[in-house]
Predict the structure.
Amino acid sequence: MMSTEQRSRGIRHSEVGIVISTAMQKTVAVEVDRLVRHPLYRKTLRKTSTFLAHDESGSCKVGDRVRIMETRPLSARKRWRVTEVLSRAT
């Protein structure tokens, strides 16, 4: 049986990406790569999306590999939050 918290929040989508900007306060820009197949020609293409993510502690640096998770809208463009830093930039 699911608790009421799990039922109301639902399943949150998560992605792994690279931090490309930390110029804002408590916000980082994360670039996420994915592979998609062209519907007609069947060639695999690399698509890149940029998400703004909330970083409460401010611990992320440019080049870090992070996991981000969907959350409620925090601002006009910010709908993700950093859940963990997977690896630090060298």
Notes: The first strand starts at residue 14 and ends at 24.
